[in-house]
Design goal:
The chain has about 260 residues and is mainly alpha-helical. The chain contains seven helices and six strands; from the N terminus they run βαααβααββββαα. Strand 5 and strand 6 (about 170-175) form a beta hairpin.
């Protein structure tokens, strides 16, 4: 396993303004658009549920980064949350917006392509179609999205095993954790695409939302359920395995201790 002993940055990311200003503006514009669409349809549209639900995962980034040996460049606005057990030492504010945009751009596209594959090849089930479409697309999307962040000097994978791209701003592994992230994306697409007869996500029925009278209280409850379910699934699917893998199989890191 390769460990970096020195941080690769000598200053802030050259395009820091993108994450500090463009990401929040894009996120806010998307939120406003989905709210308007939801008001017109009198129910929370999928885009709104995905954007809010996945943006709420931002706090888990610190734990995932510890398991993945990801370290943020210190020359950008950091959360006042120092080193705690099983967390990377630095946390940045812009992850709030990046999480929602990353998943919003990927999940509907993978879901639509998987459903198209099922229509063209009826013998392919929903799970198989999601895996066949999702794994390569999530791998490429994560490589593009994270590769741009690493090359831009926002963060680097300080320790890694297997092949990796050495860029201007840091290191981007090509096996772990990117394959793990791609597999996680497939599970999320499967979960979101598991629909009840009313077209809503099946897991909403676990909370009896179908028994609530249509209106604002029901739609607010749907948003809350998406936040709760996605956070619980993300903990079980990502945080717990990554921490256990690092503890059991990988080595300590001098920069992400």
């Amino acid at each position: 396993m390769h460990h970096d002993l020195i941080e690769p940055w000598t200053g802030p990311p050259a395009t820091l303004w993108v994450n500090l200003w463009v990401l929040p503006v894009v996120w806010g514009a998307l939120l406003l658009w989905f709210v308007v669409q939801s008001v017109r349809r009198r129910e929370a549209v999928p885009g709104l549920l995905i954007l809010i639900g996945f943006s709420s995962l931002f706090w888990q980034d610190a734990y995932i980064n510890w398991g993945m040996y990801l370290l943020y460049n210190p020359d950008q606005p950091l959360m006042p949350w120092g080193s705690t057990t099983f967390t990377a030492p630095r946390k940045v504010w812009w992850t709030i917006f990046a999480y929602g945009i990353f998943w919003l751009a990927a999940i509907p596209a993978v879901l639509a392509l998987a459903e198209r594959l099922q229509r063209r090849v009826p013998r392919v089930g929903r799970t198989a179609a999601t895996v066949l479409v999702g794994l390569p697309l999530f791998y490429l999307w994560d490589l593009l999205f994270e590769g741009a962040a690493v090359n831009g000097g926002f963060y680097s994978y300080i320790s890694h095993w297997g092949p990796a791209l050495t860029m201007h701003g840091g290191t981007m592994p090509l096996l772990f954790p990117i394959l793990f992230i791609a597999a996680s994306g497939v599970v999320f697409v499967w979960l979101v695409g598991w629909r009840a007869p009313d077209g809503h996500a099946r897991f909403e029925d676990w909370f009896g939302l179908h028994r609530i009278r249509a209106g604002l209280p029901r739609e607010a409850a749907r948003v809350a359920v998406w936040v709760l379910v996605l956070n619980v699934v993300h903990i079980a699917l990502c945080i717990v395995p990554l921490i256990l893998i690092r503890i059991a199989l990988l080595q300590p890191s001098p920069l992400v201790p």
